[in-house]
Transglycosylase SLT domain-containing protein
Amino acid sequence: MTVSFIRRIASPKKALTTAAVAAATAGLALTAAPAQAATPATASSAQAIAHKMIPDAAQFNAFSKIVSHESGWNPSATNASSGAYGLVQALPGSKMASAGGDWKTNPATQIKWGLDYMNSRYGSPVKAWSFWQANGWY
């Protein structure tokens, strides 16, 4: 398959399908995986940290739902289009430096910043989750 052939296809979906069929015919496999998937150990570790920091079950569950949607509990998740970063997808990510200099790598620092953000902007993680459900962002 030539590049010019792919360029002539109007729909990117069609180009992907055509490429997949051509790859399968050639004995290759194309796989799709989340670009920023967290390892189960990383995700469960971050969740355990958050649970200790947010002992109230309702607040933790709301916080967890937001983080699950935003980053899949991956502390190094980066939004390719906006540049939002971390568990809570701070934009810019450097905002989290106010919670600690290790904001790029420490889930506890990101959780602290995210919790402070949700409390100051919305009043609580539960209220932030309500806003997220209504708007698809927070």
Q: What stands out?
A: The longest helix spans residues 107-122. The chain has two domains: 1-32, 40-135. Residues 1-35 have pLDDT under 50 and may be disordered. Residues 40-135 form one domain.
